[in-house]
């Protein structure tokens, strides 16, 4: 043994003998060397240090056979710690004396990545500044306003077209008669000549209108069957002439309902069965939008409508009355008619019976026939009933003019 080794051993034993006894369970840093006190802040002490006073300097010096290491035991302690904790002790490069711990454990890089991601603090969701959100909302509102503006412009143009159309229709429906037409009508109503003189002959229906019959169109007179039936023929010809402008309708004459409902045994379909053959009409009633049926009640004219599109029976009375027997008779008729002519079965029990409210009403005792004709005229156009009692005198003249021309406008 060399002298230096013998001296080191003697020094180590002397320190052990001179060291005062310590409590068994002493964990305080006072008994450690300065190096162990610093490391104690970062490391858990060896198992033997939990029960006995532990001197890091004695541990290092006794573990070396050569003597006190030139690195103050740093290499020895580093190896010891590495085998137990996977840590290394390194000197502070800046201070030169301060110790710190470095993790040198070799692990799977994939695990290390997952661990790093797990401990990575969750980033808060990035929010846009308020002014950007407000600008975006304003932009969206502006787009919506542009869309609304476009819709308003579109519907404005449509409304303008409708108003122009309505204006044109009203001008057509209420177009004043010329002075020449007024004079011609006055001569027919009040001029001299035989009352039996035939003013008009409608060859398709073989209806002729004499001067006497024509005079029922003067104010305060009741309309007769010939004038009403001829005008209904003209309405039918108008629809054929302009099918796009008018609804597809069928116009029964004034004798139809009485023959259907008032036979020898009451209801009598056979008596009117041949009136609507396809050969005679060129179409079937099931193809029509509306079917008009004049109803005469002693001295009063009413109108019944079989609305094939809406499956309703409508009743229009210029005095505001209602006869529930009329829709029942027509329901039975249209069921038999469709079955006979079209070989189809329709259930009219689910159809609605409608007393049309809000219609123009007569204010006297002689304009019921003219009201009925204008109900038919406006309904065949698909227009609302936009007339009143004050228009009846004009409508009498206009109907007279159209009959003389054999053309309904």
Automatic annotation (TrEMBL):
Residues 207-379 form the Ubiquitin-like protease family profile domain. Keywords: Hydrolase, Protease, Thiol protease, Ubl conjugation pathway. GO terms for biological process: protein desumoylation; proteolysis. Pfam families: Peptidase_C48. GO terms for molecular function: cysteine-type peptidase activity; ubiquitin-like protein peptidase activity. It comes from the Eukaryota. Belongs to the peptidase C48 family. This is Ubiquitin-like protease family profile domain-containing protein. InterPro entries: Papain-like_cys_pep_sf, Peptidase_C48_C.
């Amino acid at each position: 043994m060399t002298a230096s080794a013998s001296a080191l051993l003697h020094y180590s034993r002397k320190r052990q003998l001179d060291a005062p006894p310590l409590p068994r369970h002493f964990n305080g840093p006072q008994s450690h060397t300065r190096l162990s006190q610093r490391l104690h802040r970062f490391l858990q002490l060896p198992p033997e240090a939990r029960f006995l006073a532990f001197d890091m300097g004695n541990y290092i010096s006794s573990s070396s056979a050569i003597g006190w290491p030139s690195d103050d035991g740093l290499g020895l302690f580093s190896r010891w710690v590495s085998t137990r904790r996977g840590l290394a002790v390194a000197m502070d490069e800046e201070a030169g004396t301060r110790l710190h711990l470095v993790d040198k454990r070799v692990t799977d890089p994939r695990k290390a990545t997952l661990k790093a991601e797990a401990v990575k603090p969750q980033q808060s969701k990035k929010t846009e500044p308020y002014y950007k959100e407000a600008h975006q909302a304003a932009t969206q509102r502006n787009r919506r306003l542009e869309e609304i503006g476009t819709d308003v412009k579109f519907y404005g143009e449509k409304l303008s077209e409708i108003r122009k159309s309505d204006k044109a229709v009203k001008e057509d429906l209420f177009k004043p008669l010329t002075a020449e037409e007024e004079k011609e009508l006055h001569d027919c109503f009040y001029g001299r000549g035989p009352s039996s003189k035939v003013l008009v002959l409608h060859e398709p229906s073989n209806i002729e209108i004499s001067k006497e019959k024509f005079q029922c169109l003067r104010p305060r007179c009741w309309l007769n069957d010939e004038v009403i039936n001829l005008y209904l023929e003209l309405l039918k010809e108008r629809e054929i002439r302009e099918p796009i402008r008018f609804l597809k309708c069928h116009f029964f004459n004034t004798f139809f309902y009485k023959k259907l409902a008032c036979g020898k045994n009451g209801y009598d379909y056979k008596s009117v069965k041949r009136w609507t053959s396809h050969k005679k009409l060129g179409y079937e009633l099931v193809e029509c939008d509306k079917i008009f049926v004049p109803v005469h009640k002693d001295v009063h004219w009413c109108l019944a409508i079989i609305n094939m599109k809406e499956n309703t029976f409508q009743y229009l009375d210029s005095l505001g009355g209602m006869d529930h027997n009329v829709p029942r008779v027509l329901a039975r008729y249209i069921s038999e008619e469709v079955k006979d002519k079209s070989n189809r079965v329709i259930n009219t029990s689910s159809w609605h019976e409608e007393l049309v409210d809000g219609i123009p009403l007569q204010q006297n005792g002689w304009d019921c026939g003219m009201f009925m004709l204008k109900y038919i005229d406006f309904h065949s156009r698909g227009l609302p009933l936009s007339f009143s009692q004050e228009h009846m005198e004009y409508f009498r003249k206009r109907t007279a003019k159209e009959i003389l021309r054999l053309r309904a406008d």
